[in-house]
Specification:
two-stranded antiparallel ribbon, 1 helix, elongated
Length: about 60
């Protein structure tokens, strides 16, 4: 199952609705990638969503 180990984001489910109002089941999964991040002063490989990777990169760039 796709889950971000940093923020805990998981997939959600619902319906695709066509123009004819036919409903079919679907799942929307977070965009999860394996990344190396500094967590509590140590480098760790984690599965993180792209939003967390981007936030980590931006906060490291500011310092």
């Amino acid at each position: 199952m796709a889950m971000c180990q940093v923020c805990g984001k998981v997939g959600s489910s619902g319906h695709n609705v066509s123009h004819a109002k036919r409903r079919t089941n679907t799942r929307w999964l977070p965009n999860v990638h394996r990344a190396t991040m500094v967590i509590n002063g140590q480098r760790q490989r984690v599965k993180a969503c792209t939003r967390c990777i981007r936030s980590q990169y931006k906060s490291a760039k500011v310092k």
